[in-house]
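User: I'm new to structure prediction. If I give you an amino acid sequence, what do you actually give back? Let's try with this one:
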Amino acid sequence: DVQDRRVIASIERNADYYGRSSFELDSDAALVALIGHPQVFWMDTPTVRVEVLAGEPQLLVQAKKDGFRVSIQPTINTTVMPVDVVFTKETPTRLRVTKITDEHRRIAAIVGDGLTVPSHAKQLVLDAIAAISSLVTVHSDVEGGAANVRQVEVDTRLHAHLLPYEAGLKLQVLVRPFANAGPYFSPGSGPESVIAEIDGKPSQTHRGLVAERKAAKNLVAACSVLESIEETHGEWLIDDPSTSLEMLVQLQAQGDNVVIAWPEGEKFKIRRQVNTKKFSLSIKREQNWFSATGELQIGEDKVLDLRKLMDLLKQSAGRFIPIGGNEFVALTDEFKRRLQDLDSFGDAHGAGVRVHPLAAFALEELVEDAGTLKVDKHWKEHKKRILEADALQPTLPTTLQAELRDYQVTGFEWLARLAHWGGGACLADDMGLGKTLQALTLILSRAQQGPTLVVAPTSVCMNWQAEAARFAPTLNLTLFGAGNRAQTLATLKPFDLIVASYGLLQQEVELFSGVQWHTIVLDEAQAIKNKDTKRAQAALALRGDFKIVATGTPLENHLGELWTLFHFTNPGLLGSLEQFNQRFAGPIERRQDAEARAQLRRLIQPFILRRTKSQVLAELPSRTEIVRQVDLSAEETALYEALRREALERLAEIDDAPGGQKHIKILAEIMKLRRACCHPQLVAPKLKLAGSKLAVFGELLDELLENHHKALVFSQFVDHLSIIRAYLDERGVRYQYLDGSTPMAARKTRVDAFQAGEGDVFLISLKAGGTGLNLTAADYVIHMDPWWNPAVEDQASDRAHRMGQQRPVTIYRLVAKHTIEEKIVQMHQHKRDLADSLLGGGDISGKMSADAILKLLEEEFRE
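Assistant: Good question. You get back a string of structure tokens that encode the predicted 3D arrangement of the chain. For your 863 residues, that looks like this:
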């Protein structure tokens, strides 16, 4: 069009000596030609239109204490190279272009950088203003300085100008003294008296500069987002969309005190902030789940169903829900949290979500605050059952032949309330706090309603038999195995208690799963931690009205073990294993995701009871742990290093083997190294080398026996125990012995003998005797070789450090220096963190990969 052609005309063509053309833009002429052009844009934000307006110089006359000060804006250069055009960025989207004439330059030459005039020259000032008022706009504080000008009340509102900036916004705060018209100024800057042509009439208003600065400061204080962002050249640059939206909400909260100014085609629009009162919720029972649907009303024209709302929240920036175009709805922080909880604890289902009844707390908060609520009778019954369980005051069975400690009464009451509610329980008290007694009390209280099954490791079954006979003699206990097994389970009645080993459960899974048990207890339940084993599958096939898992180590290696336990006690609560890994295990173990950890803890907390000895047994003697480092002899060190290098060479040849196979081969090589650390005879008997660790054990044993102490000695290698047995026989030291091949009856006989004083040392294989034994006659524990998992060692140590122990307990770990044993001990704290993060609150360590284990082999050990 014509205006475009005027802009193009400002391009000048030049030719050099050789006739070659070059082109140059006369920017002054181009700017003047662009005044009023409708299609001018900023280069860095090409979708934002810029308003180019004509301007004229402004003469500022400001009253001072002893006279007046006269200045001109914009500054006009009258020196060597005077300019013809001056432009000012008045707002983020407004450019004021002023053509400078010779008359303007003559005025500027007189005024300079500012002219101070004494009070007695007032009339001269007024006369001068009158003479040049047709050439410049006069802003004067001098009375009578502006003739024929109407006085207008100043507009004190702040103007928040917003522009797109990267993925977010930039903000500039200005004032506009004339409402909806006239020039803009930075708060507290520029003339106090402003004159402009408003609606075709000269108008004047008077600003309060101090009040403007105070208002701008208060705005920054009210918008917490701005306090954390540095102001640069009068602008705040916010590149994050979520923060930008939060700022917009905070600006909107200022109401009529702030005018929000967007460029054409605004980037963001916050429809409104909504809370749960705008939300309607409906809950009904579907099979074994509660199904929830709902709608959020947004204004008069838009409704979001619950599923859509939750999906949008996942895609959103913080608490801001996109509802089309650049429009958003701001959820309150509380509403957002409740929706996120519902998403974490439920599964997508149609237009809503379905929630496990035991995770219904995720719905309860929404139920309490929903604007409209519709629930079925099943939800009402569910709520009633929860309230009844909370109010329940369980009473101890009158036939219980034991005096429970306070914490044990609390444990029984917790179990009873869970049974009434319908949830399964994980009793995860420290070893030695009487989990068996608490479970027996609960069994006795429920015995009249039906039979009970207890499944335990073989080594623990005899302990159940002894404690049931002692504390609950009215129970009809049968140690499962002898006689007609099918007949035993076919004739069950109230007060019957069947105690079976995990091995027999696996063998007779069809018989056990055919019974509807009133109560089921899995003792030392870490035995089913691997869901893929036949043992775990047999346990998961059991049917019971109330299920308990009792274990001091609900987590030994990774979160998948916890999933298996809860899949037994509360099927479906943690979702499928795939869902559990996606929601919790992956984020927690790989990324140490604190939010996922908190959500998982919240989900399992009602169903897991964990007390440590230090919390509940102030009278329990102290426990001291000592790592005793063992220096290997030169011959042992050479043997160990040779084995390590051979292992690396062999493993290099299977580098491309499938992951599982590679993992097994690595563990096999490491096993050989660990055995070499115990005693060279275990890996190279022909060398007939003496064992440094056995020598250190002998020194320690001499000291213990001299001071009349008794010791439990653990090793995971039975042939290592054989070497120690030969050593004790040679020295004439009395001892008891127990490993996985020891018959059940013989186990009890040997334990009773040691407790009665027969023997100063008890040799025990770690896996066979790490649980279910009460060996408080010993006050020292010696671990001859460290196990991968410290929880297994802790369980073994607690055979001595438990109720009934009267003396302080000292635990020694013999660790060969500069070997893989040192690395295992260093890993122990990380393993403990895995459980503490959910039961106590630390960080979590994941399952070791094959590569991580291989790295232990590759590292050199030096002083």
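You can read the tokens as a compact description of the fold. Here is one thing that stands out. The radius of gyration is 42 Å.
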